[in-house]
UniProtKB/TrEMBL annotation:
The gene is gltX. Keywords: Aminoacyl-tRNA synthetase, ATP-binding, Cytoplasm, Ligase, Metal-binding, Nucleotide-binding, Protein biosynthesis, Zinc. This is Glutamate--tRNA ligase. HAMAP family: Glu_tRNA_synth_type1 (MF_00022). Zn(2+) binds at residues 98, 100, 125, 127. PANTHER family: GLUTAMATE--TRNA LIGASE (PTHR43311), GLUTAMATE--TRNA LIGASE, MITOCHONDRIAL-RELATED (PTHR43311:SF2). PROSITE patterns: AA_TRNA_LIGASE_I (PS00178). It comes from Buchnera aphidicola. Residues 2-306 form the Glutamyl/glutaminyl-tRNA synthetase class Ib catalytic domain. Catalyzes the attachment of glutamate to tRNA(Glu) in a two-step reaction: glutamate is first activated by ATP to form Glu-AMP and then transferred to the acceptor end of tRNA(Glu).
Length: 471
């Protein structure tokens, strides 16, 4: 049988780390067995669903390269399918209309809690609904959960799980507004979409026995289930859409790249010996459900930074450039085409953990300097600096080739000429071309900033000093 997995987010929040992990494990599992991976958007909870979240999910999965083989399927487009099955179930007597009012249900619940009983529906309408069959009273549809026996399944991560049917109630499959519920749609879709392996968060483990009962009642095959344990944040709180855990888009916007994000998320709950770094190819080959941990895993931002640094400096430069281009486009940063991005990245990325960190350190490559905003600029407004800058301007203007070695040579000449140290000249130039006292290697910076930009910024500094020089 062909392996088929799915990622089926409810778009009631952004795509966060836990969601990506479910998607990644499902995707890797399907890849490993040459099966297929489908994307299903579970958008029947119309009050909480938001189109921005759908876009966020699609964008995040695409950016990370978690491409789906089928879909995205939207449950909201499949309402007719659900409706027909509910009608069939009512006809077959495996579901029933429940007319109990909210007040009655609240009272029931309150009394059960008072009597220290597990709150659940008492199945009143399972017996009496016939009487009200033709009335206009609003109703929900409930599944006739078996009254006896045990539901058992062998969770691929957590082992054997069983629960007595006495513990389960007749859960709602259609709300009073006619909309089918999560537990119903998920079952119908897993069945109709031939899902063989359901890999999802541990928070769904309680739903599984109900879903299995429903599948059995419909004579549908039961997939295998794997419930992945929770992810905790730094303070030990479960990550979830509701506690506003960080969306993947925010990581992307900070310049974390797919290889690093996936590697990091893969290891949140899965291990292979003591290996930390996994290429996508290795992930596909080595991933297995047996090594998924039963215990919760903990967010570790430092590790993500470390992995991002590692991948930024070890992936082919072409790959890095393509991520960098997407990153700059998203941030509306436009670098002039005369800047040698490839070598700039090659030379300086090693100092940074994220693309955001990189780009914020080199703002002067794509934005002009406003000398009026430079800290302590006044202290550079001296006669000697003016002379040095004019000398530099002239010498660099006459340079026909823009090589790092020639640049360094000219810097050395100016040191000799003015009897100052290298640092003195370098700082002065740094202020002029970057507005900062510190930058990486000055001849490299001059080289990458290019002749025109260099001369025009030195010229601006000369003008500024002339205007503000203390006499
Ligand atoms: N739609 C559910 C959620 O976002 C997942 C359902 C499932 O995987 O069965 O939590």
């Amino acid at each position: 049988m062909k392996v088929k997995t799915r990622f089926s987010p409810s778009p009631t929040g952004c795509l966060h780390i836990g969601g990506v992990r479910t998607a990644l494990y499902s995707w890797l599992f399907a890849q490993k067995y040459r099966g297929s991976f489908i994307l299903r958007i579970e958008d029947t909870d119309t009050k909480r669903v938001n189109n921005d979240y759908i876009q966020d999910i699609l964008y995040g999965l695409n950016y990370l390269g978690l491409h789906w083989d089928e879909g995205p399927f939207y449950q909201s487009n499949r309402l007719d399918i659900y409706k027909n099955i509910i009608l069939y179930m009512l006809k077959k007597g495996i579901a029933y209309k429940c007319y109990c009012s909210q007040e009655r249900l609240d009272r029931l619940r309150k009394n059960q809690i008072l009597n220290k009983e597990k709150p659940r529906y008492d199945r009143k309408c399972r017996e009496y609904c016939i009487v009200l069959k033709k009335s206009n009273i609003p109703f929900v549809v409930r599944f006739k959960n078996p009254l006896e026996g045990i539901v058992k399944f062998n969770d691929m991560i957590r082992g054997s799980i069983h629960i007595s049917n006495h513990e389960l109630d007749d859960f709602i499959i259609q709300r009073s507004n006619g909309m089918p519920t999560y537990n119903f749609c998920v079952v119908i879709d897993d069945w109709k979409m031939n899902i063989t392996h359901v890999i999802r968060g541990e928070d769904h483990v309680n739903n599984t026995p109900r879903q299995i009962n429903l599948l059995n009642a419909l004579n549908a095959p039961v997939p295998l289930y794997a419930h992945v344990s929770m992810i905790l944040d730094n303070s030990g709180i479960k990550l979830s859409k509701r506690n506003q855990s960080r969306s993947i888009t925010s990581y992307i916007n900070e310049g974390f790249i797919p290889e690093a994000i996936l590697n990091y998320i893969l290891r949140l709950g899965w291990s292979y010996k003591d290996q930390e770094v996994f290429s996508i190819h290795e992930m596909k080959n080595l991933f297995n459900i047996e090594n998924v941990s039963k215990s919760p895993s903990m967010i570790n931002d430092k590790k993500l930074l470390w992995l991002n640094h590692y991948y930024l400096n070890s992936l082919p430069i072409k790959t890095i450039i393509s991520y960098f281009s997407i990153f700059c486009k998203n941030k509306k940063i436009f670098l002039d085409t005369d800047i040698d991005i490839q070598n700039l990245l090659k030379e300086f990325l090693c100092h940074h953990n994220t693309l955001q960190e990189f780009i914020s350190s080199y703002v002067y490559f794509y934005k002009d300097i406003n000398l009026y905003n430079v800290d302590n600029i006044q202290m550079y407004c001296s006669c000697i600096n003016l002379k040095i800058l004019k000398f530099l301007y002239k010498k660099f203007f006459l340079l026909t080739c823009w090589y790092k070695s020639d640049i360094l040579c000219l810097l050395k000449q100016s040191i000799k000429r003015f009897h100052v140290c290298f640092k003195y000249i370098a700082t002065l130039i740094r202020i002029g071309i970057s507005g900062k006292k510190n930058t990486p290697n000055i001849s490299s910076i001059i080289f990458y900033i290019g002749k025109n930009r260099f001369l025009s910024r030195i010229h601006n500094l000369i003008k500024y000093i002339q205007l503000h020089m203390l006499v």
